[in-house]
Amino acid sequence: MEYGICVPHYGKPVDIERSLGVARSAEELGFDSVWVTDHLFVPRTLDIIYRDNMLEPLAFLSHLAAVVPRVRLGTSVIILPYRNPIIVAKMLATIDQLSHGRLIFGAAVGWMEEEFRALKVPFAERGALSDESLRIIRDIWTKGLVSHHGQFYDYDDMQASPRPVQPAGPPIWIGGNSARARRRVAELGDGWHTSGLDAASMAPGCAHVRELWAKNARAGEPVFSARIDLALEGVSEIVLSYPQRAGRPARIPMHGSVSAVVDALGAMRNIGVAHAVFETSTQSYAGSLATMETFMQKVAPQLA
Questions:
Q1: Residue 45 has what DSSP assignment?
Q2: CA end-to-end span of the chain
Q3: Exposed e or buried b for every residue in 262-301, given b needs 16+ CB within 10 A?
Q4: Is the Cβ–Cβ distance between 128 and 121 less than 8 Å?
């Protein structure tokens, strides 16, 4: 199993050096990846960690490509309908070039209806728009000349270069815990990237993805990854809340002793999870670093 860290570029007053310090420490400690996440325009009345002081993820990721020269760089996740997919394909190809082929593209359809409305994006059509966007992005990454005639975009004989360093383009890991998200994985993605699930909750979905993958005659195997709220007993200092919104399922954190976290991650590995991405942004910068250090010293060796 590989391990990643969400870089804290949201939720507390901007401190660029400390945020970059988390990324640098992740690389120095032996984590495999660092991740950014996405929201653009959050209602003042919504008490959520992504509301305040959130750096734009793709701009920030392009900077991280130079700050950390070895680890993979991921998006957890870019909300597909918020941006023109042609521009996104170009930006991500550029980041893959800048990072010498280290990008993982996590993408999802989004859920915050107020944000869609403010951006003038049709909330009810976000699924269809996301599917079309993924097809456009993949085409631009893998073909020299592209044409497309869809519901939202239409063009002939267009070209965008350079393409990404990775020959098939960066792997696309589809976020979302719904059946439709799993269908999107099997049809258009390379992996499933869940958020806030434990092994018991994720296992039926993994089986569903594998079933859909076979029905779509996809080669190879899907990648399973999970974004996890991590706090270690006696180490992690939780200084920010992660409130739930009515109508959305509760996140299942991975909180507890070292042995409890080892067991929980072992269960995730047993169902096929290959990459765990830890969210520690609810903690202070010092708390995040302490959690990361303890994890690599005491948890990871037991799962090697």
A1: T
A2: 8
A3: bebbeebeebbbebbbbbbbbbbbebbbbbbebbbebbbe
A4: no
User: Which tens digit of pLDDT belongs to each residue from 170-208?
Assistant: 999 999 999 999 999 999 999 999 999 999 999 999 999
Q: Span 242-260, mean pLDDT?
A: 81
pLDDT in tens, 86-96: 999 999 999 99
Q: Determine how many CB atoms are found less than 10 A away from the CB of residue 46.
A: 14
Residue whose structure tokens are 């919104």? 245
- Whether the CA torsion 125, 182, 168, 8 is positive or negative: it is positive
CA-closest candidate to residue 58, choices 96, 20, 3? 96
Q: For the segment 129-153, what is each residue's pLDDT rounded down to a tens digit? A: 999 999 999 999 999 999 999 999 9
Q: What is the CATH number of domain 2-303?
A: 3.20.20.30
**Structural element, H or E, at residue 113:** helix 113-118
- Picking from 9, 57, 64, the residue whose alpha carbon sits closest to that of residue 31 is 64
* Strand residue runs (E) in the chain: 2-6, 33-36, 72-75, 78-79, 103-108, 146-149, 154-158, 172-175, 191-195, 223-232, 254-256, 273-279
